[in-house]
Amino acid sequence: MKNIPQSSSSKFRKGNRWKKQNGNFLIEMSIAAALAAVFALITWLLVPDLLASFNAWKITNELKTAIPKIQSGYNNRTSFALLTTEEVAKMRWFSDGFLDKNGEIPNGAIKTKWGDITFAPASGNNQAVGTLNNIPSRECIKIAEDFGQAIYTSATVNSTSIKTTTTPLATITASDQCNSSDANTLTFNFRR
């Protein structure tokens, strides 16, 4: 077989492949950088709301299980006159993740990641009032939305009423109050 000399262009194709791309590498890198920027922007926009929803869900879910336990504990009593945060904690009506403990023994405080949850008698001892302190605005809105349920007789955000026994939950008022601060105080009342 006869050796046919290769042209310089065929040697180029077999040789250095970086030279062959003629700038395509830069285009590919630009596309990758643009996609990374879009992903970062979407993450920056969505993650705070997702975290707020999760954090609020943990609190509202806990309240949905703890309030019936408190009501059951006071079912045979004439009033909520003796209700205290310490009693709620030491009776373990809240799960361990919310209890401030010394070792395995609750010390009488109930905590969220931002502040305390407290309980006391209200409305002439016929109701109980719970207070959530230092709640950020996103979580505040999501928790306040849950106060529309029948288990809650009334609720406030930063001392402004958002629900009473005769009026339904005022979601606009709740969101306005929650957005006025990043350390909100929410109260909620419930009966036996």
Gap from first CA to last CA: 102 Å
Listing every helix as H and every strand as E from the N terminus to the C terminus, the arrangement reads HHHHEEEEHEEHE
| Total beta strands | 7
Strand order of the largest sheet: 1-2-3-4-7-5-6
Walkthrough of the structure:
With 192 residues, this protein is α+β, with helices and mostly antiparallel strands. It has one domain: TcpA-like pilin, CATH 3.30.1690.10. Helix content is 45%, strand content 22%. It is built from six helices and seven strands. The chain has helices at residues 8-14, 17-20, 24-73, 85-90, 137-146, 171-179, and strands at residues 99-102, 105-111, 116-122, 127-135, 154-157, 160-163, 184-191. A seven-stranded antiparallel sheet has the order 1-2-3-4-7-5-6. Helix 3 (24-73) packs across helix 5 (137-146) and helix 5 runs antiparallel to helix 6 (171-179). The longest helix is centred in the N-terminal third of the chain and has 50 residues, at 24-73. The model has no long low-confidence stretch (mean pLDDT 87).
Write the layout of secondary structure elements.
Elements: H1 8-14, H2 17-20, H3 24-73, H4 85-90, E1 99-102, E2 105-111, E3 116-122, E4 127-135, H5 137-146, E5 154-157, E6 160-163, H6 171-179, E7 184-191
